Amino acid sequence: MKRRPNTSDAALIALRQAISAFYQRELQCGDGSVAYLVERRPGVFLLTVHVKDLAMLRLEFEGAHLTRRVGNPNIHMVLEYAAATGVVRTLVRGGAKYHQMLVDAFAEHLLGVKVDAHRIKPPTLDLSVLRLGFDVPQAVADGFVALQVKSLSVLSPSTALKLDCTAMASSEQRCVTELLREEFPGEDPLERGWLITAARINLYYPPEPGKARSKVVTVEVTRRGRLNLHKFDAALQAQLEGYLVSLGILQPGQTLNVREAPPEPLPISWTRLRA
């Protein structure tokens, strides 16, 4: 489902009423709510909803004095929708039922359709190319002076043992893959068929004038398709994606389940909407 959401007050009121009704049925709360919808960048919309929870007695400081007061906690949820792909990402407590409720309410009241939402499974990435290090000539042409596979997680063929290996500062920016070959001649886990499950790659800019330390860009990637590229601005993100495509880790245009760790342990669900 690919369309721009309805941003009118009437649509947002209908969405709030649907969400409140759900919480009244499930948790006997939700008699108040607010919702905001913004276009965070062209074609990508962010919906934030706050629902009124049951009243509770709180012990709080007011200045230097401790007071008791009755208040209603906030149930917070967020939905991000990309009109170009029809993919939504939801962040809400409560499990699959709550994610589904938020997706259904958004689709019905802001997109104007009832949809069949399908959870997106993260892609599996082949990281075996990193056995040879991070050899990307384009990165050097872009101004990086050193490329380093800083750390690897590897899994034994029997899956009974996992090793986490990190190149120390004394390695002088050498790849952990090279160090493994030196430290375990003939017994290197990578040469014995161990599976790379996660990697951390450092790309070093030259030091700024007057400074000794280089600026570092760190890319984290796992075999299960988790990346940290969302932490970078759009230009650098596209640049880093290009390096991973050139190595064959990513395919051109591949959509990944990139997750940003929230401040609280809330579950994130990725879903594609289909009419």
Q: Quickly count the helices.
A: 5
Average pLDDT: 87
Which strand order do you get reading across the main beta sheet? 1-2-5-6-12-7
Gross morphology: elongated
Largest β-sheet summary: 6 strands, antiparallel
> Strand fraction band?
25-35%
Order of helices and strands: HEEEEEEHEHEEHEEHE
What attributes characterize this protein structure?
275 residues, alpha+beta, four-stranded antiparallel β-sheet, 12 strands, 23% helix, elongated
What does this entry look like structurally?
With 275 residues, the protein is α+β, with helices and mostly antiparallel strands. 23% of the residues lie in helices and 32% in strands. It has five helices and twelve strands. The strands form three sheets. Strands 1-2-5-6-12-7 form a six-stranded antiparallel sheet, with helices on one face. A four-stranded antiparallel sheet has the order 9-8-10-11, covered by helices on one side. A two-stranded antiparallel sheet has the order 3-4. Helix 1 packs antiparallel against helix 2 (96-111). The radius of gyration is 24 Å and the shape is elongated. The model is unreliable at 255-266 (pLDDT under 50).
